[in-house]
């Protein structure tokens, strides 16, 4: 299994990249979450994310398909909403991947009291990160700039024509 990090650990290791990705995630309310169905095929769902302490988290309706998928196989990929094409000017496309860990017990109860989700049985997942990637176009518009972070390799930048 790949090494994982909390959002805070990622932000401490790669503050500029974390700020870029957080800005993309905060620019829009809705994002696309990919999970794995029982047969291994992908499922995409809309989701909203938030920060809770050192963690990037999201909630889910009780027994939703994405929650059941993640309870069975915690692997996920989250693609930040890119918005309209003009919203990407000077911006980056952002993705995070890792394992979603369901939060239970006292921490879940505190979240329910604070956030007041539609149901007290709503799920809360902490996103442990194995990879964060941004893709953008270079200022001179001649190539893509892909920035990738992993807990083991840190930040690496790739240029692709």
TrEMBL record:
Gene3D superfamilies: Electron Transport, Fmn-binding Protein, Chain A (2.30.110.10)
GO cellular component: cytosol
Coiled-coil annotated spans: none
Tree of life domain: Bacteria
Pfam families the UniProt entry points to: PNPOx_N
UniProt entry keywords in alphabetical sequence: Oxidoreductase
Transcription in keyword set: no
Molecular-function GO terms, alphabetical: coenzyme F420 binding; oxidoreductase activity, acting on the CH-CH group of donors
Residues in Pyridoxamine 5'-phosphate oxidase N-terminal domain copies: 19-135
Protein name in UniProt: Pyridoxamine 5'-phosphate oxidase
Source organism of the structure: Saccharopolyspora kobensis
Phylogenetic placement of the source organism: Bacteria, Bacillati, Actinomycetota, Actinomycetes, Pseudonocardiales
């Amino acid at each position: 299994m790949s090494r994982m990090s909390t959002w805070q650990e990622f932000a401490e290791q790669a503050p500029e990249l974390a700020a870029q990705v957080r800005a993309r995630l905060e620019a829009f309310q809705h994002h696309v979450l990919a999970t794995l169905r029982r047969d291994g095929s992908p499922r995409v769902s809309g989701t909203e994310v938030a920060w809770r302490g050192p963690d990037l988290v999201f909630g889910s309706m009780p027994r939703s398909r994405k929650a059941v998928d993640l309870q069975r196989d915690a692997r996920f990929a989250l693609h930040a909403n890119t918005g309209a094409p003009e919203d990407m000017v000077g911006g980056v496309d952002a993705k995070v991947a890792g394992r979603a860990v369901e939060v239970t017990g006292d921490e879940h109860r505190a979240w329910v009291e604070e956030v007041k989700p539609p149901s007290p049985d709503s799920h809360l997942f902490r996103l442990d990160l194995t990879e964060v990637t941004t893709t953008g176009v270079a200022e001179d518009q001649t190539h893509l700039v892909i920035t990738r972070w992993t807990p083991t390799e840190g930040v690496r930048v790739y240029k692709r024509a």
